[in-house]
Amino acid sequence: MSYADQVFIQNCQDILSKGIWDTDRPVRPRWEDGTPAHTIKLFGVVNRYDLRREFPIITVRKQFLKSAVDELLWIWQKKSNDVHQLSSHIWDAWADENGTIGKAYGYQLGVKHHYPQGDMDQVDKVLWDLKHDPASRRILTNLYNHHDLSEMALYPCAYSMTFNVSGNTLNGILNQRSQDMLTANGWNVMQYAVLLHMFAQVSGLEVGELVHVIADAHIYDRHVPIVEEIIARKPYDAPAFVMDKSITDFYAFTKDSFRLEGYQAHPLGEKIPVAV
Ligand SMILES: Nc1nc(=O)c2c([nH]1)NC[C@@H]1CN(c3ccc(C(=O)N[C@@H](CCC(=O)O)C(=O)O)cc3)CN21
Ligand SMILES: O=c1ccn([C@H]2C[C@H](O)[C@@H](COP(=O)(O)O)O2)c(=O)[nH]1
Fold first, then answer.
1. Distance between CA 25 and CA 266 in Å, rounded?
2. Yes or no: is domain 43-217 CATH 3.30.572.10?
3. Catalytic site residue from 15, 51, 95, 157
4. Is the C-beta atom of 271 inside 6 A of ligand 2?
5. Ligand 1 — pocket residues by CB below 6 A?
6. How far apart are CA 192 and CA 200, in angstroms?
7. Model-level pTM?
8. For 207-261, what is each residue's pLDDT tens digit?
9. What ranges do the domains of the chain cover?
């Protein structure tokens, strides 16, 4: 069984058996027909994935690594907020009349700031620190900029990544304020696992652990029967994750720089509705 399956199944079982419903309160998200999208949730879920052991990808529901990496590169490498630069349509529902998600995600990573070494954006500062000051305890990115929240289509969910070097190993903590377990838990985990692999490789470090801290881990009401069915399936073993080892420049990775060998997974079945 893939370790990521074990974690996903346990998290979902915990949410379903011990979670709290928000049905008695007004909520922001809506289903396509306008009905409020309520959730059952658990606060403060923390998961650790040792990327040296295996790649964290679930098999109880087929995941699309290439689409997930495409969105990751859109945010972290292209630093874009333009949905036309994505190869999937996952952000279309949140785009404004110009096709952007405003000052969210990629936009924030592209803003340059003053540092003693010169002006750099958040991604280039991480790359600089990992190379020149790996003992630093100040290597982190943050997208949750209160100054710009009013101009974001959706407030960033996976909003901060802390990088920490121990010996020759790069570990990371992903801080996420809100997690739609069915739509995006597997999606976000594999994205940030790939990101840690990328930063480690271009910084001459070994990849270590990804710690995923989730403040509000929830399952939407219409997802409950789908989740129950998915977590009852028999998981497969994790596939092998292969990346192009020749790449030494963070900006040279493409979505074809990564592949899975032997990924066996249960087909998705019906399309999952996403609350907007
Ligand atoms: N309610 C909600 N849940 C989310 O997970 C979410 C939002 N809203 N809003 C913004 C982004 C958009 N996200 C999404 C939206 C859809 C998929 C999705 O449909 N994924 C499909 C395949 C997509 C493809 O390959 O084209 C999947 O099966 O993983 C994934 C992430 C994550 N975020
Ligand atoms: O990367 C992402 C982006 C979004 N989500 C989910 C988490 C929530 O279900 C919604 C956002 O709604 P809020 O009311 O702003 O929390 O999107 C995710 O899981 N992962």
1. 35
2. yes
3. 157
4. no
5. 29, 63-64, 67, 88, 90-91, 94, 154, 180, 183-184, 187, 268, 274-275
6. 12
7. 0.98
8. 999 999 999 999 999 999 999 999 999 999 999 999 999 999 999 999 999 999 9
9. 43-217
